[in-house]
Specification:
heterodimer, A: alpha/beta, 8 helices, 41% helix, 22% strand, globular, B: 577 residues, Rossmann fold, seven-stranded mixed sheet, five-stranded parallel sheet, 20 helices, 36% helix
Chain lengths: 192, 577
């Protein structure tokens, strides 16, 4: 099988590393060769963060370059715009519509671009949703990442049960119920 | 069973399986997790040293004691540890010793992108370079075997895309490696001139033997395919080459010092064009050229800067790139920022307000250099702030009343305190601010000699920074709460005014520590907000400006109250808990 590439992008502190861990577990369980690449340290402090996940029969490079991503899972709208050039022609973008203004916008040195979702739709197949209300509905505002994973799972050719097992394995027990609900709500939102 | 593992975790697993008993390191991205993982294994004693030099010396001592030993550092940490390393090359080891160094091409979290392969050449030590997690584990074991066979510390070089990449590893059992006997051997271990003259002969013989070993070891391998182009490469670059050229002939180097010159010469003879793919400096390329081996492309194609990737490889080799549809508007940058409630923010707001000259240092507080605080004039290396403030104010005595050095608690213990000794001894007048947030922050919360806990989370002596400074002869030492901006400003004005050295300890624990509880978020009273934007000067990610008024993001505000202190109109109000 050809290598499939996924990027998880967002703002440092949003829980992108948990999402990649979850994905890694799902894919390894399916017998794929898997590589994940993340960045720790300086950039995690509220900066733009990106994690690469690649899987297939044999994966070489741990990173995803311009025009190579089959899927981009984005936790923040501006980050979708920043990384969209990495999406393959015909690739899928799943984006949260939540906006976190970066420091240059806060200080007035730059503007937060408008109509990002519309402009992204002109470039790619986009599922855009505000994941926070769904996460809250599921019982935990922190489950935004699992809502988005739920959306992604609907687009990927893997069985639902595999995802649920990986969630059970990755998420602490006391948050499991809420996270499974968040996952289901994400899947529903993808179908809508 | 196969398990997905971070490169750093795989190095730690390798230590466990190789029977390593002793680990000492100083944290540094991207090397930190090796030691954090190693401490979790039975049979490995692991500790944080105050700096990389001490870590290296401790590992040398443990090796001489007969235990397989290890230390890890980031690339710039090797500068600190270089002194003992160069002479450990002469003394050799007793039990095997491994030194991990993690380079950071692209400078994800570093102040430079030096190439640590030069150290292996200069110190005359063997260096291994894994490509992925499975090789991290395997090369650690191989490294100990080489260390003991050739009587030398062995360097394991990784980079961000190995250290912080996860891939599958196969786990094995721990080898039973008993403690070796210690027998006094002064001619070997006392590097005084008379002994060292003889040891240098041994070092050169060893390098010749290692060069022979390089020709036959399975760490290096020739993968013959299409012979139009042959690539010589190592580490992550091997992965990028294979990604773009799955059928090309490749000579993959696992042992990058010394190089297998004869094998590489033979490989060059089998391919029409020889291309060397390496990140940062042209170390392999220069070596091949020096030995008269024809190189048809290398640094002229790939340059000396930053990380490589499959895309950069395609661009350099004239391979078509995949289609890509970039966003056609300027996307504002998202630089890292101090967290909401960060105890450093209040102090930097005062430094910014007073427009002081600030000699900075390495840590989360380096973020104080960014807009809008922009309160930093220099950053060089761990501990540099204090020495630099001394030199600066000695040459510009008029500037002493406007100049401070700023350094964190862990960095102070690392190499800041010798700077304080220098200030006291040489009659300096520097004002030093120690930002004591009770943890090593930027690398992800490691204990240090001031925190009262070891790496194993055992209680220990907590070294008091104020006692260290007083013992060094600094009479003016005081503690302030950096969240109290008025108190910070008063302390600064007072200490800058006197013609004596002083230390101000700005003490408040990192907001991300579990025991630090957030306050309820603040809210803006729109009727009182006049839109003056004073609050935006502290660079808090929780505050933004909407429709002419300040606004607080309640989901990330932790109620530190700095904005309340900045506002002259009382627009920020604490919500009732």
């Amino acid at each position: 099988m050809k290598t499939t590439s996924i990027m998880i992008v967002g703002v440092g502190g949003q829980g992108t590393l948990l999402a990649s861990k979850l994905l890694g577990n799902v894919l390894l369980r399916q017998g794929f060769d898997v590589k994940l690449s993340e960045v720790h340290g300086m950039s995690q402090r509220g900066g733009s963060v990106v994690t690469y996940v690649r899987f297939g029969d044999k994966v070489y490079s741990p990173v995803v370059d311009l025009g190579e991503a089959d899927y981009i899972l984005s936790f923040e709208l501006l980050e979708s715009a920043r990384w969209i050039a990495h999406l393959k022609k015909g690739g899928h973008l799943v984006t949260n519509t939540h906006k976190t203004p970066p420091m240059p916008v806060i200080t007035g040195a730059a503007q937060y671009p408008e109509d990002i979702v519309e402009k992204l739709r002109a470039r790619a197949d986009v599922v855009a949703l505000d994941a926070l209300p769904l996460a809250e509905q599921a019982g935990s505002a922190r489950a935004v990442n699992v809502v988005l994973i739920g959306v992604l799972s609907k687009l990927m050719p893997l069985d639902e049960s595999v995802w649920r097992e990986a969630i059970a394995e990755t998420v602490p027990k006391k948050f499991l119920e809420a996270n499974l609900r968040a996952f289901a709500l994400g899947r529903d939102a993808a179908g809508a | 069973m196969k398990k997905l593992m971070l490169g750093n975790a795989a190095v730690a697993r390798g230590l466990y399986e190789a029977g390593c008993r002793f680990v000492s390191s100083y944290p540094g991205t991207p090397s930190t997790e090796i030691t954090e993982e190693a401490v979790g294994y039975d049979g490995i004693y692991a500790e944080w040293a105050p700096n990389e030099k001490v870590a290296m010396e401790a590992a040398i001592g443990a090796s001489i004691a007969g235990a397989r030993s290890f230390c890890a550092m980031k690339h710039v940490g090797m500068n600190v540890a270089a002194d003992p390393m160069f002479t450990a090359s002469y003394t050799g080891v007793n039990a095997g010793m491994l030194i991990a160094v993690a380079d950071d091409p692209g400078m994800h979290s570093s102040q430079n992108e030096q190439d640590s392969r030069h150290y292996a050449i200069a110190a005359k030590l063997p260096m291994l370079e894994p490509s992925d997690s499975a090789e991290c584990l395997a090369f650690v074991k191989e490294g100990y075997a080489i260390s003991e066979q050739f009587d030398a510390p062995v360097i394991l070089r990784t980079c961000t895309r190995v250290a912080h990449a996860q891939s599958a590893v196969e786990l094995g059992e721990r080898a039973d490696i008993p403690l070796k006997d210690y027998v006094k051997n002064a001619p070997k271990f006392v590097a005084a001139p008379a002994n060292a003259v003889k040891r240098h002969v041994v070092v050169e013989e060893r390098m010749r033997a290692l060069a022979q070993f390089a020709e036959t070891t399975s760490l290096n391998r020739e993968e013959m395919g299409d012979t139009e182009v042959g690539f010589v490469t190592s580490g992550t670059c091997y992965l990028y080459v294979r990604e773009v050229f799955p059928n090309a002939s490749v000579f993959k180097l696992g042992l990058v010092n010394p190089l297998p010159v004869d094998s590489l010469r033979a490989f060059a003879g089998k391919v029409k064009k020889l291309i060397v793919v390496e990140e940062l400096d042209g170390v392999i390329e220069a070596h091949l050229r020096a030995h008269g081996i024809r190189v048809d492309g290398g640094k002229d194609l790939f340059g000396l800067l930053g990380e490589l990737s499959q895309g950069k490889l395609r661009a350099a080799m004239g391979v078509p790139q995949p289609e890509s549809a970039p966003y056609d508007e300027m996307v504002p940058a998202r630089p890292p920022v101090m967290c909401p409630g960060c105890p450093h923010r209040g102090l930097f707001a005062v430094l910014s307000k007073l427009k002081l000259t600030v000699m900075g240092d390495i840590g989360c507080y380096t973020l104080g250099a960014s807009a809008p605080l922009a309160a930093m004039d220099t950053t060089v290396c761990m501990g540099a702030s204090i020495g630099m403030a001394h030199g600066f104010t000695k040459m510009r005595p008029d500037a002493a009343k406007r100049t401070v050095a700023i350094i964190g608690d862990s960095t102070f213990m690392h190499s800041g305190m010798t700077g304080v000794v220098n200030v006291a001894y040489n009659k300096g007048v520097s004002t030093v601010i120690v930002l004591d947030n009770a943890i090593t922050g930027m690398t992800g919360h490691q204990q240090n000699p001031t925190t009262g806990l070891t790496l194993r989370q055992e209680p220990t002596v907590a070294i008091r920074i104020e006692d260290v400074c007083r013992a060094a002869g600094i009479e003016r030492v005081r503690v302030v709460d950096p969240q109290d901006m008025r108190a910070v400003e008063a302390a600064l004005r007072e200490e800058l005014a006197v013609d004596a050295p002083s230390v101000i300890i700005a003490r408040r624990p990192c907001m991300l520590l579990k025991y630090v509880k957030p306050n309820p978020p603040l809210a803006v009273d729109a009727a009182k907000c006049v839109g003056c934007k004073s609050c935006l000067r502290i660079g808090c990610p929780a505050i933004s400006f909407r429709d002419g008024k300040a606004s607080v993001d309640e989901t990330i505000c932790v109620g530190c109250g700095l904005c309340e202190q900045m506002c002259k109109f009382g627009a920020f109000q604490k919500k009732e808990a």
